[in-house]
Amino acid sequence: MANRMNWLQGKTVRKNTPAGSHSRSSSTPQVHSTSSTIFGGGVKDPSGRITEYSSDDDQCPVCKSDKYLERKLRLLVSSCYHKMCESCIDRLFTLGPAPCPICNKVLRKLAFTPQTFEDLGVEKEIAIRRRVAKEFNKRLEDFSSLRDFNDYLEDVEDITFNLINDVDPIETESRIAAYREANAALTLLNSQREEAYILSLRQAEELERKEKELRAEEARREEEEERQEKESGRREILERLERADGADAAKVVQRSKRERAEKEASRKGVAPGKGAQALLRARMAAAAATAATKDTPHIPFQDDYYAYNDMFVLQHVYVDPSSEAVRKDREGIMRAGGYRVEEAWERAVRSAVAGLDLLPLDHEIDAFHGMDQGGDVIMSAA
Amino acid sequence: MPASKTPLYEASTQFKNWRYSSQSLAKVRASLNAAAVAVIRNTFEVDEPGSSSALSFLTPDEEILLVRLYVSKIPQLCGFFRFPEEVEATAVSYLKRFYLKNTVMDWHPKNVIVLQSRLTALFLATKTTNNPISLEAYTNNIPKTDPSDVLDLEFLVAQSLGFEFAVWHAHRALWGIWLDLQTVPTAPRDRATTQSEIYDAALRHVRASRLSDAELIYTPSQIALAALSMASAQLATEWAESKFPSGSLSLSTLQSTLGSIKTLIEAASHPVDVERVRGVDLRLKLCKNPEKVVGSKAYLAKKAEEDRKAEEKRNRKVIEVEKAMAEGDPFGDELAGRLVDYDDDDDD
């Protein structure tokens, strides 16, 4: 309910798009008071505010005034999805319901909504879907089979499509009315269920928030206590030192320090806070959970290749005229990032010894590549 | 060498899938040629009975000749674009491998590489060796070439290569040997500069080896060593003996391997007999697979056949969908139970 009252409190966010550009995300939202106009509808973001669309190209189609002449121009959308400016709305509809100057549908002042999307088609579709969803809220549990549920969903989609695109509206409305009559009880029940579910969600959220506050409070208190403890300890040491006349100052300091440590330990050990206990339990549970799903140790990829390393000894430097230019090039104009001539040398030397002692295939062992596929390879290549 | 580990080279696709013996190479080529001839003869016969008897199809050897000629054109192109040696060598390997899976009679070399038309193998090589060039810059510099000429075949070439783009090259191995020679204890340190003409000669032999089948039979290091030994037999022996204990079995087998590589390289060093190639090329024009010649009867017939199949498939699908709508749940019943043909590919 609180969300629904937002528009009465005038919590509306306005978005100004720079001229020419129609992107809706570039500018920072500004909060404007909208107490002069009353409206409902629009699309709310999660915080319950309406982000309103407006651009510098806005022009009222009724009175033709635009942003250039009137900085405060604000276009609202009628229930027949035509835009007009606030002053036109005031002028036309203050005296009660009047026909829309564009399509002649009878409108009321209260039925104007702020524009959320640049494309009014989207606005319309969302409004219609919202309406349809309110009426057609059956769930899978209400049907005997999945097939029935799917049929029902398809019907709903049909109706929605008809409404959005104005396909035989009279018949569609009568379909909705028939459905409403037939399923009034169920619809009501489902909407109650939905509300209950939302309420439970909200309560859970609230509970969590309170708990968090409580924990923060406790932590603050503990900190304060500790600080006080330290303070009093220091004062005690000073007092004792005064009494001991500085003869064995070090001993006194040490003793009182020990005493304080003992006290602290006893406080922590004997009476841990209720929150701390809960925390401890949670930690133990988490530890148990991780112990249950113990990971197998990570084995990095191990390639078992023989890289002919015993066949050559790589030198630090070679006499190599072909790579001289690259090596002399200190600024690295000729090299890509990460290039090291040593690696190129290593690759070359490795390929010099790779497969040096491999025997060429003999005709007997020759298990033949492609003899049997030979025939179809050519033709399948076509 | 530790027995449990796979040597790096033997883990490469070059070793696994592109290593042949000279006999198996000949067999692959012969079977490819035979299959292609059979298919093309058949298409000619269907087109016009009796027309194929007048044709003389290419023999496998003639096909090799053509491929070799067009392989030899790649260095010119690379020189023009100033591509590094790596690109050139890779493109050559791609082209050779491509023609182990396809026949010249299906794809004229000019369609895959070189001169006026398709330079797909080279373009692919620039990309796989990290020397990319923009397609426009590439085709604009080659007369009468459209970007689509290159791109049309790109997937087919990649597919024929089995998408195995990594190639081990002999020129890198040669560089490695040249560097490693400096670690031979008796060697003068500055040999790399004072005897650079030996390296250059060896590099020329490595380049010549690209025209041969050597890389399909032997490992890059063996080819490089053979090239070095052709330039300076003494240096090559010196290095080989530093790698293997003298008198060992591997050293003697290596010697015989080097010998056969040398013959291959020497054979490849001779320029291709242009007159003979011209004759082969002329005959090829007559016996090219007519299905691949745009506008020919067989080409049109094949197109029509493909269209018919596609149409049939569409109809079948429509009927299936209708049936499903009529008799069951359009959302599908249970997931299990009914056997569904998921094979929607266009391969049938």
UniProtKB/TrEMBL annotation, chain A:
GO terms for molecular function: cyclin-dependent protein serine/threonine kinase activator activity; kinase activity; zinc ion binding. Residues 1-46, 215-273 are annotated as: Disordered. Its main location: nucleus. Residues 21-37 have a biased composition (Low complexity). Keywords: Kinase, Metal-binding, Nucleus, Transferase, Zinc, Zinc-finger. One of its GO terms (cellular component) is transcription factor TFIIK complex. One of its GO terms (biological process) is nucleotide-excision repair. It is found in: Nucleus. It comes from the Eukaryota. Pfam families: MAT1 (PF06391), zf-C3HC4_5 (PF17121). Residues 60-104 form the RING-type domain. Residues 215-248 have a biased composition (Basic and acidic residues). NCBIfam families: cdk7. This is RNA polymerase II transcription factor B subunit 3.
TrEMBL record, chain B:
Residues 72-159 form the Cyclin-like domain. Pfam families: Cyclin_C_2. GO terms for molecular function: cyclin-dependent protein serine/threonine kinase regulator activity. Keywords: Cyclin. InterPro entries: Cyclin-like_dom, Cyclin-like_sf, Cyclin/Ssn8, Cyclin_C_2. CDD domains: CYCLIN_CCNH_rpt1, CYCLIN_CCNH_rpt2. One of its GO terms (biological process) is regulation of transcription by RNA polymerase II. This is Cyclin-like protein. It comes from Mycena albidolilacea. The lineage of its organism: Eukaryota, Fungi, Dikarya, Basidiomycota, Agaricomycotina.
